[in-house]
Amino acid sequence: MSRQWFSLDIDTIEKQLETNRDEGLVQREVTEKRDYYGKNKLPEQEKTPEWLKFIKHFHDVLIYILLVAAVVTLILGHYIDTVVIILVAVINALIGYIQEGKAEKALDGIKNMLSLHATVVREGKRHDLEAEDLVPGDVVLVKAGDKVPADLRLVEADHLKAEEASLTGESTSVTKETMVLDDETVLGDRVNMLFSGTSISQGTGRGIVVATGEDTEIGKINQSMQDVEEIKTPLLKQTDDFGKLISIVIVVLATLLFIFGLTFHQYDWQELLLSVIGLMVAAIPEGLPAILSIILALGVQTMADNKAIMRTLPSVETLGAVTIICSDKTGTLTKNEMTVTTVVTANQTFDVTGTGYEPVGELRLNDKEVNVIDYPRLFQFLTAVKTVNESDVIEKDNQWIVQGEPTEGCLVSLADKASQPIKKLSMQSKIPFDSSYKYMAALVEEDGQKRIYLKGAPDRVFDMAGLEVGSEERNYWEEQMKRRTETGERVIAAAVKDVSETTETIDHEDVSTGLTLLGLAGIIDPPREEAIEAIKACKQAGITVKMITGDHKDTALAIAKQMQLTDRDAVVEGRELDDMSDDERCEVVKRVDVFARTSPKNKLQLVEALQTNGDISAMTGDGVNDAPALKRADIGVAMGIKGTEVAKEASEMVLVDDNFRTIVNAVKEGRRVYDNLKKTILFILPTNGAEAFLVMAALLLGLTMLLSAVQILYVNMVTAVTVALALAFEPIERGTMEKPPRKSTERLLSPYYMFRIVFVSLLIGGSILLLYPRWVEQYGQENVSTITLHALVFAQLFHMFNVRNERHFSLNKDFFKNKAAFIVSALLIIIQLLVTYVPFMQVALGLQPLSLGEWFYPVMIGLGVFIVVEIEKLVTHRVFKRK
Ligand code: ATP
């Protein structure tokens, strides 16, 4: 069904879609239409078939090397080797495949958490619905920052502009209107329509849904939107490159050794080839990539469970390196539970009683309730703030809540506390609130007179009311404002202006002069207790918190002090930032923690200054204008509740609860994940190192191979799927949030890590090699590979307990905190017993059943590794500390 909706008038559309522009649809019609039109969503994009996803995991240099090895063993007639090598390749692909499925599921879940919502009018009432539930005929309200949820024909448009680049390629915003258009009008010029998937950059509007799902313009070109980005993280990229490097080195080394063996040792070429294959599979950390992505995926999941939704995987790593968090004040650091406590008019100050949004309380003068009729200025002030208002307070489940903006909600409650009912006049035209100009105005008709009511930030309104700086009147109002802001209250002013009868619409020029100030309202918004704690945690973790708020500077500083965010008295205002050079801004962000009366542009300036200074910053935001700053910040943080869709799309992280503490928790989780990624690498590589060392030593010294290729593969796989996984569940190490953030330039394999990997490789490989002659003597050559295999596995088992703690002695009070470590250890031991004693497994791996005494060496080597590495940690940290 595709009609030329833009060329029809609203009456016709109402008739055709059986709706009403004011009241919307009734429930019965909604149900009928949903049955007929289906859900408002685009068909899922064709998914890659499962088998193909599985096959893709064989596309890897490391696996190619394995498959070549399989072919060689097949030609040489070592069929068991062939089967095992292929099995390893398959298991490896299977793990990768299952892992990918899990990560996909986690990300899908996150996508669902970010589902698009829409404000709909049905049966005359506003509802917040999932965009999926919209049907043609629904009446939808949109405002700046919204993503358009379906194709809409506009009924009302106030300063409405839309960004339609995703559909038309046009990069500038299109001004929207409501007039009927010619039926030849092309898509880009249909200014009375809003299209699904585009976004509102300014103003407010009301429209009737005319097309949903596949019938929308975007549906016709079938482009899916709202993708959660998925790219490789810097760390995964580093390991990928590292893997490739290893492969090349290995192949070269193996070839050289093969030639060396043939020339100097006169080995049988077939045997030699098998050994060289052994070397190749030994040195390749097959399981590493899969484990690293498991750790990341689990991290993303934990963060989501803790109310921080990551939209990109790399940000999980960046989070751990954050040095500065720039936070909004209202709702993030404070509770966003606003209550008006005082109203000030030209000659009186009224106290307001009652808490929360419940419209129960009194307006009092000198402790006595006043009759608002006796105070015309007060009466008009209340009319103004109730009229120029898009929010409401309602009772739901015995609780009074705001529908809309808390700042506006508390003004509605205030008006409803008056002794006489205050009328909400109908708005004939309006200038919606925007944090860049900080006021809202509406044209109304009151007792036959057209007038503009306005409410906004007092300092703006004082100028618009022509109060000269230094005049007695201005001084009075400034003094009144200061009293409120100094205690951390936010202040709203209201003003009025009569206009001529012919006025139909209003614009910024209409309110720039000639207003009469009616009064001020002082509003409290208490700090969040948990945010105070979180700020303290940041200080300990070497993270600076900066407040960037649209509020008055005294309010901002008072709250910052109450929350111990700063101990300095410095506040810089947005317009001061505007006047500074880039260099000056770089200096200012180092000295100042509180920025007030900022505009979204200031946020961008601050992010840029911080980046020039080399800081890694997280920046919060909610409005459509915040998008550039959110995009630019290392971690853009959008508010899940009050944030606009556009802000969410521009950011790396979305806070489900808009709470500052959630950011700090996510940073903590980011540090944990990064540490565990590093620990995993530190853990896995020595296995490969030790094996490669043994194979090379045997080749060079002309010894019998200690392990076959199959046995080596087995060791790599079994440690990767058991003990290595334990590190993914390792809780955050003590003291991690007490040290400064890591440097963003820090290399994955620091010199110390390189040293550790080589040290542990030599420790494990060397002790086996040293004991080898004794094993031959004591237990006979045929048992040596079995003992060697167990020695390697036990060494890694114990080594895992070393790696769990990077800085601390491992036998500390957190030793039992990671249950996974013990479960996988037990599992590993059971598997080891099975392969040693179950006949068919023995045969497959070429092992011998061991007597009890023969277990002595493997266990002792494991224990030895543990003790030596603990001593090494202690010594190294002493040395580092001294340095
Ligand atoms: P923060 O940046 O800390 O989250 P904020 O986003 O609430 O604060 P703005 O929304 O930019 O800050 O508000 C700045 C000022 O504009 C407020 O101090 C208040 O005086 C005024 N103001 C806020 N909301 C409205 C509104 N709905 N109508 C009119 N004026 C408003």
TrEMBL record:
GO cellular component: plasma membrane
PROSITE patterns: ATPASE_E1_E2
Transmembrane segment boundaries: 62-95, 245-267, 273-300, 681-706, 712-732, 753-772, 784-801, 822-843, 855-875
Pfam families listed in its UniProt record: Cation_ATPase, Cation_ATPase_C, Cation_ATPase_N, E1-E2_ATPase
Record membrane topology: Multi-pass membrane protein
InterPro entries per UniProt: ATPase_P-typ_cation-transptr_C, ATPase_P-typ_cation-transptr_N, ATPase_P-typ_cyto_dom_N, ATPase_P-typ_P_site, ATPase_P-typ_TM_dom_sf, ATPase_P-typ_transduc_dom_A_sf, ATPase_P-type_domA, Cation_transp_ATPase_P-type
SMART domains per record: Cation_ATPase_N
Molecular-function GO terms, alphabetical: ATP binding; ATP hydrolysis activity; P-type sodium:potassium-exchanging transporter activity
Gene Ontology annotations of biological process type: intracellular potassium ion homeostasis; intracellular sodium ion homeostasis; potassium ion import across plasma membrane; proton transmembrane transport; sodium ion export across plasma membrane
Keywords: ATP-binding, Cell membrane, Ion transport, Magnesium, Membrane, Nucleotide-binding, Phosphoprotein, Translocase, Transmembrane, Transmembrane helix, Transport
SUPFAM superfamilies linked: Calcium ATPase, transduction domain A, Calcium ATPase, transmembrane domain M, HAD-like, Metal cation-transporting ATPase, ATP-binding domain N
Subcellular location: Cell membrane
Residue ranges annotated for the Cation-transporting P-type ATPase N-terminal domain, each copy included: 4-78
Family recorded in the similarity comment: Belongs to the cation transport ATPase (P-type) (TC 3.A.3) family. Type IIA subfamily.
NCBIfam families: ATPase_P-type (TIGR01494)
Protein's name in the database: Carbonate dehydratase
The species this protein was found in: Halolactibacillus miurensis
